[in-house]
TrEMBL record:
This is DNA polymerase IV. The gene is dinB. Its cofactor is Mg(2+). Belongs to the DNA polymerase type-Y family. The keyword Transmembrane helix does not apply.
Amino acid sequence: MKWKRKADRAPLTRDRKIIHIDMDAFFASVEQRDNPDLRGKPIAVGGSKLRGVVAAASYEARVFGVRSAMPSVTARRLCPQLIFVKSNFDKYREVSDQIRDIFYSYTDLVEPLSLDEAYLDVTESKRGPVSATLIAQAIRQEIYATTQLTASAGVSFNKFLAKVASDINKPNGMKVIMPEEAPAFLADLPVEDFHGIGKVTAARMHKMGYRTGGDLRQLSEMEMAQRFGKVGRHYYRIVRALDDRPVNPNRNRKSVGAERTYADDISSPAVMKEKLDWLVQKVFSYLVERDNFGRTVTLKMKSPEFVIHTRSRSFSGEIRKLQDLKEIARHLLDENVEEVPVVRLLGISVSNLEREAGDAVQLLLPFEEE
């Protein structure tokens, strides 16, 4: 049954009921569901023994340190018994559509973040109980009954807290943070567990003596900005549970990208990779500067006939290492260079960012690298 969807927004108050649903090891779980021989075994979706990158890893593989966006050779070294499974994004999208139909049966205010993750505002739900906690439980039960896959959920009065909560009891768990519980919860939360604070920034905070939300809460907004730059004002708000972002059903995917048109067409794959590495460095530097990483990488190639080809790859976790982003970009190029053997333009972008960053950012670069 297809449910009618509207684009209305709920009022922004502490009475809002926000759910964040995150599927557990989605790509890998779909493959294990469809192939009983893979159940209980460490698997990596995407890549191969010798090349490529991991799109997603099962929980059995994560025990060994295998993770999304990791080069396949590294994953194989960490887990010699790792089983590589070819990705099937058409199948994952089909399952994702089933899950979203469940979401839309409860509310029109659904903000998908990726195939396996979404925010829901159930302040005024279409059906089910009044309690957001009971709605989240019902949604998880319906997802399992429909897809035989498990989901984790976070429930709170704003998006930030719901997102953080959904990670607390993974996999196949749920965490509820009530308004009166939020100050104490955030005061005790390690800075590395705050959504939007990456590993590099967390390590820097540790060196400065800030280890929990309570430590950060001692700083004024000006002090936050002085220590951490523009993003410090964001940190000031989240440690106080201040997040008035609405669940936006019309959300545009924000991205950071760079592209370059070359004076002479390029036909050498080696030269393409060299040029692509340079673009990746520019994009990654921007992401690091803002401590805002993403999960989807898109390669853009324009032929001498001005035909544009784009290819994307999504991952279950943010890409936080320059080498990982290079490997992903190069792999996308290898997969498509036969289709576009000569290019006059190359571009790379990262989307599905941790934090919405206003309009999409296209880095301004000169016509051709000097």
